[in-house]
Amino acid sequence: MEKQALKYFLFTTIFLSQMASAQWVRDTEVTSSRENIYALPEAQWKDTVMAGRKHALFYPVTVTGLLIPYGPMKTFFNSAENDPVRALLFRLAQVVTPFKSMAEVFGWLGLHNYPEVDDERNPNPFPALSAKEKELPMGATLLQSHGKPGMTFSCATCHSADLFGVKVLGLTNRFPRANDFFHEGSRVAPYINSFLFKDLLKSSEEDRLMFIDSKEAIRYVGTKPPVALGLDTSLAQVAMSLSRRAQDAYSTRTPDSYKHPRPNKLEKMVADSKPAVWWNLKYKNRWLSDGSIVSGNPVHTNFLWNEIGRGTDLKSLEKWLLDNDSKIRELTAAVFASKPPRYEKFFGVNALDIDKAKRGQKHFQQACARCHGTYTKGWELPEAGTLPDEELIQNAGFTYHKKTPVRDVGTDPGRYLGMREFADALNSLQISKSIGTVVEPQKGYVPPPLDGIWARWPYFHNNSVPNLCALLTKASQRPANYWAGKAANKETDFDQDCVGYPLNEKTPVAWKKNKDLFYDTTKEGMHNTGHDEGIFLKDGIELFSVSEKSELIEFLKTL
Ligand code: HEC
Ligand code: HEC
Q1: What pLDDT score does 16 carry?
Q2: CA 18 from chain center: how many Å?
Q3: 543 FRET partner, CA 20 to 30 A, in 77, 96, 326, 393?
């Protein structure tokens, strides 16, 4: 037995230390674009990326702690509304849920259906999927447990969006509900007895066992709804979940640990942020909005965080990571190869004024490039004279920092301060050490590369600025609140001049009927301060005229 353990230990240490390989070592400078992160031959790279996109859509971690028995869930939603069993379940669960069907649940969760046929505007085309795979919306995943399907959520739940009908993998989901879902689940699960569950929903013993596993796992999940729809509390969820586990190298799940969770400031303080876009990864050597992950493959780290937030046993996770290195590589390759959607594909080349954008580029170089990097445009190429407009507006090159910077420009501090509340707990995990993850709290945020910035509204890590006009306005004069809404109609749901949400009288009336869509910057963690003085203000005086700002925005549309 001991020998076996030793063998496993050696295997784990050696193998995992290889997994924490060269490109993820702290401070490794980024000297070239790492779109093809493993430098694979072209054909193999394409296949690997496609395989990776599939893992992004369908969550691959089979040892995940929380699965919702799918059969019983279907029975439940297919039962008639006046079914006494259903009524009883609702009462038991103490939920006043407005949902009448699975489709409504998925809609509430902010998930999108797969397109019938992939759109040529999609920068990250989908892998081939069977009709069965497309049955549930993007992000919802069925995994087998006790021989039955259980439902969970993949990376695409938070990292994909419906952009005017195009389903873009790697773009921020503007309206994710993953945290609310876990929050509701952890509130309700303890009240449902597994035998009652089995009887009422006419489910199998296997479903009951799956339900028991999930009920156990959710004891170790600390949850919190976001302060505004569109933001995410994963940071707090990881911190609060860790505080419900024992303080040992594997953060063991013990009855004592969940009964007496250690207090954590993130229960109260707001450190919410929007899911980040994936196409910036290739430029960076530290991760997250505050650059606080300074070492390790960010995809590895994401699995770890996701699983801590799902109450998973970390020894099982460590084994899964070991056994599934190829899946992690595929997903990593896909994330690094992500591309942003292009403005002209949605609005046409003629919607861009190239001369105006060229003037905007000068302002960008003057006021923005030192933080956000320098773009070379097609129009700067020696052969520009012979190129069509489509080519002129492309990015021909981009120079970003070799070491990803973090700058405090006065934006809301909540998110970066939050990292202090659990960095130590995370770093001391054996699994963090094995995969080479190191977290260091920072002061400020990474000035992100601005590729595809037109599609990334609302702006800043906390969504506090509705469009680029507002971003280029003195903080004290930015809108104190705004209404958000889906990107369904290009004409009404998007302001093409200001790039982002239409404000005031331009706001679609329907948006104002849903209070969940209201963003109030006066609340904690939601402030819209900063990123003005020293950037486009000097001693409170604007650097640019109204028309110069408009030129700058024209340039930003082309990135
Ligand atoms: C519940 C929502 C959610 C899910 C699910 C999720 N993420 Fe994220 N992800 C986020 C949020 C929020 C951030 C930004 C956090 C921050 O830095 O403030 C983020 C950031 C990231 C980053 C860092 C980006 C950067 O620029 O540094 C990567 C990489 C990433 N996620 C990959 C993944 C992968 C891979 C998965 C699936 C294994 C995944 N995420 C699942 C919400 C999610
Ligand atoms: C001193 C460094 C610095 C300069 C100069 C600077 N920025 Fe930023 N910028 C940042 C930081 C840091 C953030 C992230 C702030 C946050 O999310 O809280 C940011 C965020 C942004 C965002 C939002 C990104 C997103 O994904 O939401 C945009 C757009 C932006 N900057 C545009 C500009 C423009 C245009 C200029 C020039 C007028 C400029 N910035 C100059 C540091 C800088």
Answers
A1: 46
A2: 27
A3: 393
